[in-house]
Amino acid sequence: xxxxxxxxxxxxxxxxxxxxxxxxxxxxxxxxxxxxxxxxxxxxxxxxxxxxxxxxxxxxxxxxxxxxxxxxxxxxxxxxxxxxxxxxxxxxxxxxxxxxxxxxxxxxxxxxxxxxxxxxxxxxxxxxxxxxxxxxxxxxxxxxxxxxxxxxxxxxxxxxxxx
Length: 163
Hints:
Blueprint: H1 2-26, H2 41-62, H3 83-103, H4 105-119, H5 124-145
């Protein structure tokens, strides 16, 4: 019983700490116009909600409301980890991190979205156009909607892609 409470307090504290970190880190985001809703708004909202959720979990634990222990998970313990798939996903993520400054967000994100879908079993000719559209939508939303500049890379100078 005591161990369960410690775990629940630790969970609430961790959630609240992540919220405090998010709020503190959001203050370092540069904004073009201080009067408009800018790139800091979302991190402030998320950080505040995390702090509130963490505090609510701590208060609920103090009042004796503990989470229900699961009887068993619906997992086949005999199935082994598919390390090939994990390796593909790690390789795709590392490639994205390396390429984002070289070729820009649209190309690197396309590779990330396509590679993750392909690694998890998607048909490549369906996943590729969806990955392209998703990467471009994210680029446009960040560049035009939020005024944030993701690296455009080879698309530098294209008005709706270059924040």
